[in-house]
Write a structure and sequence with these properties.
The chain is mainly α. Helix 2 (35-59) crosses helix 4 (92-124) and helix 3 packs antiparallel against helix 4 (92-124). It is flat and about 50 Å long. The chain is built from four helices and no strands.
């Protein structure tokens, strides 16, 4: 389990740093970001973190989870409900725009949660 948590946290850190670096390196001369590269990076990092979140929820013992993980799960649930409700009432584009700005912060938060849990795991097993 320790190896999984370590690899998971490192992969997330690499993906976030890689995505930011990739987007920064591909900024064109007019200092505008190619939206397709940004969205590609956005879905790679987000997709892996969603997979990681589900795997951690299913396989990691409760004693190795910090309270922030439960708050993170609640945040994902609320955001999912907001997206689901927003499309029928015609506000979907506004919610998706907000998520485009909020999601990178949530990704960094989730990465920090994983590193804190890894630290907890190492302290518990010494």
């Amino acid at each position: 389990m320790k190896t999984y948590k370590y690899i998971d946290a490192i992969i997330q850190l690499i993906l976030i740093i890689g995505a930011v670096s990739f987007v920064i390196l591909l900024v064109n001369r007019s200092f505008s970001i190619d939206r397709y590269n940004f969205i590609f990076c956005y879905f790679i990092v987000g997709g892996y973190q969603l997979f990681s979140c589900l795997a951690n929820a299913a396989f990691i013992k409760k004693q190795y989870k910090i309270p922030a993980r439960r708050d993170y799960h609640k945040t994902l649930l609320v955001l999912s409900i907001c997206v689901a409700i927003s499309f029928p009432i015609g506000a979907g584009i506004f919610i998706l725009g907000a998520l485009l700005l909020i999601s990178p912060l949530i990704a960094v938060l989730y990465c920090l949660i994983c590193f804190k849990e890894l630290k907890l795991f190492y302290h518990e097993n010494e």
